[in-house]
Amino acid sequence: MEDPDFDGKPIVMLIGQYSTGKTTFIRYLLEQDFPGMRIGPEPTTDNFHIIDYAEEEGKIPGNVLSVDGKKPFRHLQQFGGTFLSRFEASQTNAEVLKSVTLLDTPGILAGEKQLVNRGYDFAGVLKWFAERADRIILLFDAHKLDISDEFKSAIQAIRKNEDKIRIVLNKADMMTHQQLMRVYGALMWSLARILQNPEVSRVYVGSFWNQPLLYEGNRELFEVEQDDLFDDLQALPRFAIVRRLNDLIKRAKSAKVNALIVSHLKSQMPMMGKEGKKKDLIKNLSDVFQTIQNVHGVPAADFPDVENMKEKLRKQDFTKFPAFEKNLIARVDKMLSEDIPRIMNLLPGEEQEKNRQGLGAIKGGVFEKVAMPYGKGIDAGIGENIWIVTRDKAKYDEVFSSLEQQNGKVTGRVARDELVKSKLSNNVLGKIWRLADHDQDGLLDNEEFALAMHLIKVKCEGSQIPDELPAHLIPPSQRNED
Known about the structure:
Layout: H1 3-7, E1 11-16, H2 22-30, E2 48-53, E3 58-61, H3 62-65, H4 80-84, E4 87-92, E5 101-104, H5 122-132, E6 135-141, H6 149-158, E7 165-170, H7 177-195, E8 203-205, H8 219-234, H9 236-267, H10 274-283, H11 285-296, H12 306-313, H13 326-356, H14 393-401, E9 410-411, H15 412-419, H16 426-436, E10 443-444, H17 446-460
Helix pairs in contact: 5-6, 9-13, 14-17, 16-17
């Protein structure tokens, strides 16, 4: 890893078959067009397309990106000129891109036996980007759940980054509720076979574009799912440094294991019959791994895939491998046990500075949430000029007037006798009391009592009570004090 890998913004990578809405999803995030954007039902994105921030709009070819020492793409030269001609960056003045970089990938053709010869290692490029991305969004079209051979190999190439993967079932507004349930189940079944993950994958369901919904029955579901997904993305800048340290640790462990493997293979080579011994070592590579595991105490999970390693070793001359260097292994162990924890202790200060500069979350575009003057439960009344509690305040005032008062207020003892009639637990009622006593004088006036009754109603209707009182619920007489 080099300086640009640590200094760069978080990368969000989008992968999917053609016409799943990858480019439209990016357009939805930015709420504006960008250079090179093409949207259509046919395969339109045939490049690896970086979308980044700049004051002036423009495009940068892949060959230029791969030699720019200030950008983290220099190692992409290993995939050759054919790939670099299919790699580009668009720059545009979008607020979202100040905090995150987006990566649109080529649409993958559908079909049971469809495998495209792209002229470069497509799965290898996906794996390279996946290792460096902060979030990987796998998009599926609700109407096209068939997974082609190429798409299957693409998913398998990024499978080891399961902690970064988020799955999106797009264009779900074109289905009824019953159809959506069946499609959701089919997608989960298909993913379980490919990802081979014992845990159930979280699938975000929605329709990520700015057109009217075809079926409105799932509107609330789509809104909640969208909020969950975008809240996940919005937190990326805050945890970018931790993610990069995590990648550094994984690479350090991988480098250590590979060093142990190649040095062991070199030590086993005889003076005569080298080729035969090489074939024997490759054939019994699992036993080699077990020997290294026992001698050096390396966890089995840190070893590379046996079959992939065999394929790579067939092309190598074992006699040219470096010998075992105890000092080098000791330096890696020291870095993992001492240096990394020391860096971790510095992170809280880095995070505070980032938040102070306003860089701790993505801003602009769809992330600038604008709430309509509508809501349910605790959100009812947001954006309205009239205090939502006023609707039932006359009823609450009747109860308040019947209670024993001190200078127009009721004590906690008196209020408790009324509040417990809701049959809510003492823990919940205590929380409601704390929120309702907004001026924190240990008493409730008529507005605060009405607020307490409103919060009880909200809770009894199935909504959660927040830890802090939302601004739209503050009693009108106390708003000028805040």
